[in-house]
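Milestone 3.1: sequence recovery, worked example.
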């Protein structure tokens, strides 16, 4: 159990506020999420970020708060949890440094690095309560495990699968792929799917990788026998033959205009498959809800797993997380709340029904299938089991960070990555160049170079979001939130 005491909390808050002063000045001290509802006198109001994959409209906020009121607050008369939507990490950081931040922190992908100064280690608490890390998908946990411990757990487990337009294959006279298909099978089928030109171009599939962002492509690297970094997190492995082979295959499909990255018209991550300009579209997180709403029963479609790559099956995952704030004024109570939002079956059922969101816990997949089929009848008959198989087998690979100066390393990668996308440099040269640059950064930092402070982390995250917004011009929300 972590008990910092008032003096310790004050000292940590002062140090963190100093480190993040520039970020707070830029972002202000506005509260992240909804305004606090009124509470009875004498009741302790506790703000918590909750990972709900739905826009935080007044209706959604009311539903979530209502469930908290009957699910937690009714059983804890002296404490009232108040829902704050997940995301907007710069505002969350500002709120934390102002002393009013959420006790439970939720975010995605690079938010984890930004939130790190505020996250408490979880290992001792898990051991004390006899909770195994085997509750969660092994591949996804690696995003949140650093040398100093585990600092977050998945908010859901969604190793990506494809949903595909069977009616388009019917129209083209092509057979549906076998679930045991290989990447060679996929390439052969996809080259027969693609065609047309200009705005009438039909792409065969999306490949989950975007300009300036390699994170969604980690699954491909593993599938071809490569990786992004080593176990020590101090060496970049993009220069390995397997990593280079993955890059060459992926970029060949994109440069030949067989595949796209997903957001081909700037209106949404999976807009192409709805319009018929894409046949196979990958997704995670919101993908099941999106497919139910946007494909529905209007077209013929189904799910299928990613093809098997040369070495193994693998896919990307959205590294969305729950973390425990190390600035919570009552760490014992904060841990109890953390257990509720990550483990409570009634809370998990509520989120499944509301958003069709995949479960975080590997033993809940049968329950998830039953809940979402009941909530969205259009999913009856769809092959939902492919989501479970990838998660339970640990085939999803999420974002990972280098030990030293993690977001600075990604900034180095970004510059060369953009040259690669513009075809100003070949895959092998690009990957080797990136690896050499990041390895040099790690070597320098390990010999006394300064690590990243909070202001650098927040600034880098904001820069990345601005770049995504410029690239996708209106579709940035979907691209950035995953």
């Amino acid at each position: 159990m972590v008990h910092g005491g008032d003096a310790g909390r004050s000292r940590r808050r002062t140090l963190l506020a100093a480190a993040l002063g520039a970020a707070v000045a830029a972002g202000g001290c506005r509260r992240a999420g909804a305004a606090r509802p009124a509470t009875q006198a004498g009741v302790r109001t506790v703000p918590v970020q909750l990972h709900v994959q739905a826009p935080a409209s007044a209706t959604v906020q009311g539903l979530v708060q209502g469930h908290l009121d009957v699910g937690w607050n009714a059983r804890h008369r002296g404490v009232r949890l108040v829902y704050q939507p997940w995301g907007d990490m710069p505002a969350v950081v500002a709120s934390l440094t102002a002393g009013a931040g959420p006790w439970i922190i939720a975010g995605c992908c690079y938010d984890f690095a930004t939130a790190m100064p505020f996250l408490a280690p979880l290992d001792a608490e898990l051991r004390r309560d006899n909770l195994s890390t085997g509750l969660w998908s092994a591949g996804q946990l690696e995003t949140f495990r650093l040398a100093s411990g585990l600092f977050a757990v998945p908010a859901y487990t969604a190793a990506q699968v494809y949903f595909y337009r069977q009616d388009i294959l019917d129209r083209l006279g092509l057979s549906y792929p076998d679930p045991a298909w290989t990447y060679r099978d996929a390439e052969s089928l996809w080259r027969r799917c693609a065609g047309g030109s200009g705005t009438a171009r039909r792409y065969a599939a999306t490949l989950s990788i975007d300009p300036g962002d390699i994170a969604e492509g980690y699954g491909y690297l593993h599938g071809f026998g490569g990786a992004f970094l080593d176990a020590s997190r101090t060496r970049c492995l993009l220069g390995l033959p397997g990593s280079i082979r993955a890059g060459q295959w992926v970029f060949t499909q994109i440069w030949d205009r067989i595949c796209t990255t997903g957001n081909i018209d700037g209106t949404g991550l999976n807009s192409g498959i709805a319009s018929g300009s894409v046949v196979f579209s990958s997704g995670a997180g919101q993908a099941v809800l999106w497919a139910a709403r946007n494909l529905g029963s209007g077209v013929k479609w189904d799910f299928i797993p990613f093809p098997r790559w040369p070495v193994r099956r693998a896919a990307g995952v959205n590294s969305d997380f729950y973390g425990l704030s190390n600035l919570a004024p009552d760490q014992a109570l904060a841990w109890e709340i953390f257990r509720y939002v990550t483990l409570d079956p009634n809370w998990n059922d509520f989120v499944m029904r509301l958003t069709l969101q995949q479960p975080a816990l590997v033993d809940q997949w049968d329950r998830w299938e039953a809940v979402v089929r009941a909530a969205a009848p259009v999913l009856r008959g769809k092959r939902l089991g492919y989501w479970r198989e990838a998660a339970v087998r640990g085939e999803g690979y999420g974002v990972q960070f280098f030990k030293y100066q993690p977001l600075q390393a990604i900034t180095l990668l970004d510059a060369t990555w953009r040259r690669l996308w513009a075809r100003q440099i070949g895959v092998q040269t690009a990957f080797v160049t990136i690896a050499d640059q990041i390895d040099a950064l790690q070597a320098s930092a390990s010999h006394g170079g300064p690590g990243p402070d909070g202001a650098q982390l927040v600034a880098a995250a904001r820069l990345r979001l601005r770049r995504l917004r410029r690239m996708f011009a209106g579709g940035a929300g979907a691209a950035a939130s995953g």
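Residues 5-157+318-397 form a domain with the D-Maltodextrin-Binding Protein; domain 2 fold (CATH 3.40.190.10). DSSP finds 21 helices and 14 strands in the chain.
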